[in-house]
Amino acid sequence: MSTEAVAMARQTMEFQAEVKQLLHIVINSLYTHKEIFLRELIANASDALDKLRVLALTDTAVLEDSPDLSIFIETDPANRILKISDNGIGMSYEEVLENIGTIAKSGSATFMQQAVNQEGANLDLIGRFGVGFYSAFMVAEKVTLLTRPPKSELGVRWESTGDGTYEIEEVEKKTRGTEVILQLKPTGPAADNHDEDFLNQYTIQKHIQKHCNFIAYPIRMNFVTEEPESDSSGLIVEGTKQISISERTLNSIQPIWMKNPKETEREQYVSFYRQHFHDWNEPAEILHTKSEGKVEFTALLFIPSQAPYGLYTGDPPKGPQLYCKHVLVVDDCRELLPDYLRFVRGIVDASDLPLNISRETLQHDAQMQVIKNHLEKKVLEKLKGMLADERTKYEAFWNELGKSIKGGLFMDYRNTEKLQDLLIFESSRSSEQKTTLQEYVDRMPEQQNSIYYTVGESRAAIERLPQLEVLREQNVEVLYFLDKVDEFLTQHLREYAGKKLQSVSRGDLDLKNDREVNTDEQYKELLQFMQETLKDKVKEVRLSKRLKSSPVCLVSSDSGYSLNMERLMAEANQPILRATRILEVNPNHGVIKALDKLLKNADSEARLSDCCQLLYDQAMLVENYKIEDPVKFANLLSSLIIEAYAGGGDK
Predict the structure, then answer these.
(1) Integer CA distances (angstroms), 245 to 83, 221, 241, 248, in order
(2) Which of 128, 156, 605, 633 is the most exposed place for a label (fewest CB within 10 A)?
């Protein structure tokens, strides 16, 4: 560097009027969290290093005598000074005036236009708005900038207290690059109680690892540690301290998601998952994908093996983390995946994003929708592959997270085609393995036109239901819907592969009728009597095609609420409409035959009415419903027992 260069004298200048307004916005409302200033200043330093690296492709002289590109952080707690330095491209006097004295002009966009055609250039430039530098005034009462471009004879010193003016002069600077020196605001009773100590080395390390852990250049800092001194015999000397200083690299530098998946071991992914997302269980599946074209991004997603805390209790886990050029932009970006996949954890790193001026809020546009659609498609493909190739693992996943997939069906009917092949259910065919809808259809006899299902609290409870008797006898497979959400599922999934989903407790079953000829006519009077007796409770009393060993059962009509839906709404204290109740009776059961005989005895009408009420209550109990009058039910039952075994004694 020539010593003959003439430095320009110090000048005091005013910011543009717009910059004054911008400074006020930045300091008071632009950024949500004050530690963001670290992210912004380090992102600027990374930009400067990128620019130098691109220039060095055609002119290695710009590297001067410091080819090791890095960022360095220094603290001086005694004087409350924090310094962030880089040995990047630096700025000339004119560039400082243009980029810092002028609103929203960082130089990055202009530089990209100039260098975009350079072969081999990798322009990972973050700064687009030129306001990140001003974020320093959130924590600093004075900001000093020292900068020098490569091959220059002089550097530039810029200083401001954020009051609307700044001082600028040319000075000697031995090294290429930029130093941002912050005189931090005082702390104490008058300070914001939520202020952090940005001179604390561990505080700085925490924020660097959160926001800038994957910057492409090492971020270094000298760490000071104190340990008690020992004498020659190894004993600690009370009241003494030994101070040691060691240089640490605070960031990981290369993100695992930027590595070649073919060269990355599963153990590396698992280790990253456990450390980054604090889940010590191994993930069920790992998805590492890259998209190129109009929208370029890399994603590393993890399908957990256990449901994240709060997933089903109204406190859902965070969405994927969104990075731009390896810098964390949004820590909880739920917009990247549909709500039914909210259990997926991961990271998306985009080369460009529609961010607002503070880079903390996404602007919703077609670009974000492209990313969301891509991620949704890839996750569903991964789940389908697991179902096809690793059935045991998929069933374990389903037991933990299947409710979310089902939820996707009734959150948005457009998801039906995407999700129906992922559904698995228990069935009457096997207690060992669940079945898919496609597997059920493949096993259906040619003459069967419906997919039969029933709902219940447990497999054991379902298998006691009288509605299954004829289906069991005819060896018809029935799906068991054991989750409460399954009842809502059927409102959106009404058929599959052209086969209607049919509840065994709704409407008529399309089954062979084994009733004897003239049965309907034989019991016509009994059915009419029961209908009249129970008219306030049921819409219809009819002979059943379902029953084989039970005397009666309750079903509902094909339209309106089902019995189970009515119960679920009641449990949730929601306004409900009663399901249409139909009482079906088994004409071959001894009880029904006995009632038919009793009907022909004119003196037994009152007792027959009691029996009809008992049968209705019995059907309610079998369905696990509360009966209206348990005391009356118990008295009637006792009375009938006495009558049957005491020869018509006291009633």
Answers:
(1) 17, 10, 13, 10
(2) 605
Count Cβ neighbours within 10 Å for each residue of 501-535 and write b for 16 or more, e otherwise. Answer: bbbbbbeebebeeeeeeeeeebbeebbebbbebbe
Here the tokens at position 451 are: 């997919």
Do the Cβ atoms of 23 and 15 come closer than 8 Å?
A: yes
Q: State the number of CA atoms in the 13 A half-sphere of 402 facing the CB.
A: 24
pLDDT in tens, 445-469: 988 999 999 998 899 999 999 999 9
Cβ proximity of 592 and 547 under 8 Å: no
Report how far apart, in Å, the C-alpha atoms of 634 and of each of 154, 286, 538 are: 102, 59, 21
How far is Cα 561 from Cα 223, in angstroms, rounded to an integer?
A: 68
Q: CA-to-CA distance for 605 and 526, rounded, in angstroms?
A: 11
Asked whether the whole model's pTM tops 0.85, one would answer no
How does pLDDT run across 556-607, given as a tens digit for each residue? 888 777 877 877 777 767 766 778 899 999 999 999 999 998 888 767 888 8
Sign of CA dihedral 64, 66, 68, 72: negative
For residue 255, what are its two tokens?
Answer: 């993100």
Closest CA to 608 of 625, 594, 589: 594
Cβ neighbours of residue 499 closer than 8 Å, sequence gap 6 or more: 441, 444, 449, 450, 451
